[in-house]
Amino acid sequence: MMRPSERQLWRVLNASAITYLDLRILFNGVPQPLGEVSLDGVPNNYSEYNPANSNKGAKAPAAGINQIVWQKHLDLPPGARADFIFQGPPAGVYGNLITHDVDTGPAGENDPIRPLANIISKAEAPEPRSILPASSAPLPAQSSAWLGNVKPIRERKLYFSERPSDPNNPNSPTVFMLTVDGQKPAPYDPASTAPNMTVQLGDVEDWVIENRTQELHAFHIHQIHFLLQEVNGAPVDEPFLRDVVNVPFWNGTSPTFPSVKLRMNFRNPNIVGTIVYHCHLLEHEDGGMMGTIQVQPPAN
């Protein structure tokens, strides 16, 4: 319940195990504009080009400026979070929050259109439990170079794949794998103490994540955020840091596999140690679609 035409900030987490969300707010069935201000806990404050890098198409952080990205829907894979603002319905107008249908591929889940919440507009609606300050302090300036402007030290390729546990029975339980290119495909072994990869603190890398399956996967990594640079080899203009991203499904016939290219940021001094990356669909993660990377301290 909210007051007529009241402007609110909503923070939404997709805490489901395997369900993709395509969030929309409808007034009498009509989609309303949603102003995304944060993704996966990181404000969208990268809204200005750095003139020194304008010829590269790289975006630089604009200290204290929070960019609002207006759109009619928000895609949230499992584990993703988003903060957005919207203006509530006028008095007498019916509103609701829904998830639209999501095509997760021939081997994927069934995610149809579903209502999630009704939005009731009343003048006597109580005050929200949380109130934003009338004026807030500006965001702190970036202490390090904007990730999009940093030259990566190396590029790696990883890929999602699946196989039946019994090669002679296609209906046997599925084995899920997330493999570093060049290594033998195998499900994650929780008893193993050897990481799949190692990096040194301060490294920046580019990862190409391929999907060699006919279902949608959500790539996620702990402790760090990354920058989405390309989808299926085409550059994207989404200069926002995140830690979950969809990797499109393979159609089963194309000679090339769908992929995303990510710039991975290992510069945070608090991440030394071993961290995991995995598909954020619980069934896939538990079925072996996971790996580990060890962040080593600097040599000196």
Distance from N terminus to C terminus (CA atoms, Å) equals 57 Å
Q: What's the CATH class of the largest domain, please?
A: Mainly Beta
Domains (count): 2
State the helicity in percent bands. Answer: under 10%
CATH architecture of the largest domain: Sandwich
Q: Which percent band covers the strand fraction?
A: over 45%
| H/E topology pattern | EEEEEEEEEEEEEEEEEEEEEEEEEHE
* Total number of strands: 26
Largest sheet: 7 strands, mixed
Gross geometry: globular
Mean pLDDT: 90
Structural class: mainly beta
Fourth-tier CATH superfamily name of the largest domain: Cupredoxins -  blue copper proteins
Radius of gyration: 21 Å
**CATH fold node name of the largest domain:** Immunoglobulin-like
Low-confidence sequence ranges = 46-65
Number of helices: 1
Question: Can you tell me about this structure?
Answer:
There is one protein chain. This protein has 300 residues and is mainly β. It has 2 domains: 7-119, Cupredoxins -  blue copper proteins (Immunoglobulin-like), CATH 2.60.40.420; 152-296, Immunoglobulin-like (Sandwich). The protein is built from 1 helix and 26 strands. The strands form 6 sheets. Strands 15, 16, 18, 20, 21, 22 and 24 form a 7-stranded mixed sheet that branches. Strands 1, 4, 5, 8 and 10 form a 5-stranded antiparallel sheet that branches. The longest helix has 5 residues, at 282-286. The termini are far apart. Residues 46-65 have low confidence and may be disordered.
